[in-house]
Amino acid sequence: MSQILHKNLFKEDKELINMLDMVLNLEEKDLCLSVEEAVVRSENEKSVDNKNKFILIGGKSLIEELSENDIYRDFLKTWDTLRKLVSKNYINISVTILNMLPFTKHNSIQLQTIYFNEEDNLEKIKRDITLIHSLKSVSIFAPADFSEAKFLLKSLKEKNTFSYFRLSKYASQKIYDENYFDNKKVYNGLPEIIYLSKNLNSFFEITLIACGPILFNVLNSARELENKNFRVTVLNISTLFSTDEKINCEIKKFWLNFIQTHKNLLIVEEHSNFGGLGSIITEILSEERNLKIKRLGLEDDLTSRNIINEAERLY
To answer: Does residue 107 contact residue 94 with C-beta atoms inside 8 Å?
Structure first.
């Protein structure tokens, strides 16, 4: 009934991958900077070399974070630094911000998106894309798992660019097959179809769109929706915004072509409904008619069951 484009999807063992460990063990870990160091290096162009610099936010243990409560403060500090660098046109320095966000509790095997209960903590992770996107000079990435994060970081290694990576603080489900990115030599930034129904006679058609670890819930929803006679397509959006105009043009072409045959879009993201992935997509498609677009964000229930319910409500 369906074409699962990556053989690792829905494996029984559902392996968990800790992206924080991956980040802390980068080959370039000696190039990790504090926000203050990034400012000093960028203001003194003579000290800038061609190697990418990393700013790590939220790399502390959970106990340290809860005691110091400084994740959001560090993010805002970093954002303000980037704002100043962008305004001064420091385009010859490569800085990658790695923001480790508490999307899900690390012991949630089913990844039903159990967030911190306190509204104060929720605020820390629901508006970062909005602020970064407002700069218009910083590329934004939200990889779904360890393998994709590693591929994207490697692809951008030699480029002089400001980039922002939205990563899971805790272990997330493995979505991509380990060897998939070994054969993917070139990064193009385009949305990727990773689940596609073969039953073209299904009466109901729906496209589920997601970025980041929540993609696991979306894929589970797709399988159940197909059992309900839906023709389902799942898109993974790992590049939310690119400073490369050529890539942005190709992304827009993709969407304009895609919606010729896909009219019902359900966007799921671990961010506010406003200013994140949903807003970026609807901005591209703002002039298109005969589309049904529904957005689910942190204000909503992001469990697989509710994703299925919202997909059915589109009809």
So the answer is: no
Tell me: do 87 and 119 sit in the same domain: yes
Asked if 282 and 291 count as a contact pair (C-beta separation under 8 A), the reply is no
Q: Does residue 66 come out as left (phi exceeding 0), alpha (psi in the -120 to 50 range) or beta?
A: alpha
Q: By the 8 A CB rule, do 277 and 129 touch?
A: yes
Question: Whole-model pTM?
Answer: 0.85
Q: What is the largest CA-CA distance in the chain?
A: 63
Tell me, yes or no, whether 178 lies in a domain: no
- 169 and 210 housed in the same domain: no
pLDDT for residue 91? 53
Running DSSP on this structure, what letter comes out for residue 25?
A: T
> Domain limits at 112?
16-173
* One domain for residues 151 and 220: no
Separation of alpha carbons 208 and 306, rounded Å: 13
164 and 210 co-located in one domain: no
Other C-beta atoms closer than 10 Å to the C-beta of 148 total: 23
pLDDT digits (tens, 9 = 90+) for 269-301: 999 988 999 999 999 998 888 899 999 998 888
Secondary structure tally for the chain: helices H, strands E: 11, 14
Give residue-wise pLDDT tens across range 169-197.
Answer: 777 788 887 788 887 778 899 999 999 98
H/E stretch holding 210 reads strand 204-210
pLDDT above 90: residue 118 = no
Total domain count, the chain: 2
With H, G, I as helix, E, B as strand and everything else as coil, classify residue 2: strand
Which of 108, 140, 173 finishes a domain?
A: 173
- Is residue 209 packed enough to be buried (19+ CB in 10 Å), middle (13-18) or exposed (0-12)? buried
- Reported as a single tens digit per residue, the pLDDT across 43-68 is 665 444 556 677 777 765 544 444 44
> Which of 137, 199, 111, 129 is closest to 165 using CA atoms?
129
